[in-house]
């Protein structure tokens, strides 16, 4: 059933509708677009003319591509925005919302562009839409006295880590690894990283937010109410409004942390099998041990890399490892002591001597395409099972499976504290990734995508069931999406909604029905309002 949402299906609509798309564009040129552009011009304010780009403009492609982080969505066939608006002030976001709604245009919002299915800048539904690119709204105001910061949605987590580190060597923030990820998209899906066992997700540390609702009003935590504030922490923001900024609580980091990367070529099954228990339940919250499985350099075999981050000095880490995980035989010179911000650089794969300001660089060298799927593991697997799974992994040329440990703070927070539902009972999340280069061509990309799907099917006996849970941050349209030209229905959305949100899905639908009953903020996998349902 789920396979009917498969790649061949998606691919064929992309191709067959690319012509239909341009004709839709023409219709909107006469109706919505002109009206929209006039409306924007009228609404230009003391902050100047609102910048808007059409496909005929020289800068359109440059701006569009500036934050496409996956080559899968760089092809000419990928459906593109009718217009791109790049606001420089909050009021310009309001004007864009007001004008789009008035002229019947949909919007998509992009902060960092890391959506795994590109939903911030494209759509398999081919609904004509205006893209709001928030890259210019990226101010960060760190208040060390108050242990807090206001961060605009278009800032990257690299910007945020950098600003915090400039203010204090003992403050930090728990969020993801790749520093070009946008705050707007990341905090609203959850956001996990090396400090999640100690401090939870990025979203767990959000204390206030500013958003533009479907009426074009700016709301904060007080005026939006607790239910909407709950929904935008883990429910994805694209169903509810345009996030302008989040206020976060900073966390304490020690002046010295310890980082280690251990490559295990022999006996990896045994190590990983033990890891499933030790890294989650036995070691302190300050210790994060992530496993990455990939091919060895010469591609014949698999290796497991243990990526370790400890909030404390190496001496203390050695003690813990000797007691809890002697099988690893970690040695003192496997460990590197550094500041927390240096560990951020290391985990983001920057070269050792890179200056801190590489964190501010939004340009990436990644010329790769990828497809990702996610699973949660709730029951430990045996050595034999890992052996079988590794053999399956060997079928794909270029892949990585990353196993990120839960436990600690992640298990203390209840499933419905915020909209992100994956807490106690989960041992770790797996992200399966197949990577390939553009030059391999369309046929090859279909093969790679097919492999990830097969891997996912193969894993079904070993992972969470009813629902087979998934993390919305690792968005996957194979789980389902709305059909073209239909009113989003609860029964469709539940297919993927319960995987992403488990028991929180119904509350998300309720909040959506209250704050956006006409579904102005909708995309291919957004939360449907009950108010539109034609089904009984
Ligand atoms: C290379 C890579 C590494 C990653 N590593 C991690 C990781 O370590 N941990 C983790 O938890 N996740 C990780 N992710 C997933 C990432 O957290 C999500 O893709 C996240 O949604 C990206 O946010 P963004 O702003 O960069 O993306 P965008 O593509 O800009 O947005 C993602 C979604 O959020 C919506 N959105 C964005 N901004 C706003 C806004 N201001 N208001 C309303 N809606 C908005 C978009 O419309 C879209 O639906 C990774 C992704 C990639 C590609
Ligand atoms: C958008 O509409 C809202 C609500 O009607 C109004 O408060 C706001 O001033 C408008 N903003 C702009 C910039 O058009
Ligand atoms: C940013 O990173 C890109 C890719 O690595 C690089 O080409 C570029 O020179 C960097 N820009 C700056 C200002 O450092």
Automatic annotation (TrEMBL):
<feature type="signal peptide">
    <location>
        <begin position="1"/>
        <end position="20"/>
    </location>
</feature>
<feature type="domain" description="FAD-binding PCMH-type">
    <location>
        <begin position="77"/>
        <end position="253"/>
    </location>
</feature>
<keyword id="KW-0285">Flavoprotein</keyword>
<dbReference type="GO" id="GO:0016491">
    <property type="term" value="F:oxidoreductase activity"/>
</dbReference>
<keyword id="KW-0732">Signal</keyword>
<dbReference type="InterPro" id="IPR036318">
    <property type="entry name" value="FAD-bd_PCMH-like_sf"/>
</dbReference>
<dbReference type="InterPro" id="IPR006094">
    <property type="entry name" value="Oxid_FAD_bind_N"/>
</dbReference>
<comment type="similarity">
    <text>Belongs to the oxygen-dependent FAD-linked oxidoreductase family.</text>
</comment>
<keyword id="KW-1015">Disulfide bond</keyword>
<dbReference type="Pfam" id="PF01565">
    <property type="entry name" value="FAD_binding_4"/>
</dbReference>
<dbReference type="InterPro" id="IPR016167">
    <property type="entry name" value="FAD-bd_PCMH_sub1"/>
</dbReference>
<dbReference type="Pfam" id="PF08031">
    <property type="entry name" value="BBE"/>
</dbReference>
<protein>
    <recommendedName>
        <fullName>FAD-binding PCMH-type domain-containing protein</fullName>
    </recommendedName>
</protein>
<dbReference type="InterPro" id="IPR016169">
    <property type="entry name" value="FAD-bd_PCMH_sub2"/>
</dbReference>
<dbReference type="GO" id="GO:0071949">
    <property type="term" value="F:FAD binding"/>
</dbReference>
<keyword id="KW-0274">FAD</keyword>
<keyword id="KW-0325">Glycoprotein</keyword>
<dbReference type="InterPro" id="IPR016166">
    <property type="entry name" value="FAD-bd_PCMH"/>
</dbReference>
<dbReference type="InterPro" id="IPR012951">
    <property type="entry name" value="BBE"/>
</dbReference>
